[in-house]
């Protein structure tokens, strides 16, 4: 019997390895999102021990963000040179990826961010400009081309995102005195193609499959500006890569935005 061709397989069913020490099948599940466990990307805290040592006695949220940004500039360079002009050689930088995502989550910058989730958490992207229905499809080829763009995938960009994730996790634990494990977040949509309902309990509740990286907002009214259906999800803190108040200088300030690692989530759906 010949080997089964992979061309017709859906990437959504092909979980990869990860760097966080838990099975990817668990990480992607609604059960994990309801009862999350601590997550750390292997070696990142140790690699950036100087950063986390500097943060130990910092009480101000703004000061913590400033320390992180200064550290990242020292280690990976600035997006602009000292005169404020663009450098000649394009160097990928986490702020540039966030800026590109803010304009269009299906941009090449967005593809690099989704590829980082794949490489660190083992969760495949299921949407990039259109549904990635199978390997070898036009949508998959476009995603593969975008995520390997040398313009955005250089300067140790995945290590930069590792540091960003670990800083976000440190920040959320340090500056939340309630000890909560979840955030109630919202997303507006008119089309469930990008995030299909895989199990439905009743008219308003079910389990949805989100792309491997998704934007949410903490403001329900803002979510309503993006679609007639409002998805309400309890997002575990361990799935948050970035949010508005994390650092002082970034491009995602206008929509109370959170970048969330996806998978299967219990969801409440309301009509706006």
Short synopsis of the structure:
This protein is α+β, with helices and mostly antiparallel strands.
List the helices and strands and how they pair.
Elements: H1 24-27, H2 30-34, H3 44-47, H4 49-55, H5 61-76, H6 94-103, H7 108-121, E1 127-128, E2 130-131, H8 138-147, H9 157-174, E3 182-189, E4 197-200, E5 205-217, H10 220-224, E6 229-236, E7 240-243, E8 257-271
Antiparallel strand pairs: 1-2, 3-6, 4-5, 5-8, 6-8, 7-8
Q: What do these coordinates show?
A:
- The chain is α+β, with helices and mostly antiparallel strands and 272 residues long.
- It has one domain (11-271).
- The chain contains ten helices and eight strands.
- The protein has helices at 24-27, 30-34, 44-47, 49-55, 61-76, 94-103, 108-121, 138-147, 157-174, 220-224; strands spanning 127-128, 130-131, 182-189, 197-200, 205-217, 229-236, 240-243, 257-271.
- Strands 3, 4, 5, 6, 7 and 8 form a six-stranded antiparallel sheet that branches.
- The longest helix has 18 residues, at 157-174.
- The model is unreliable at 1-7 and 81-88 (pLDDT under 50).
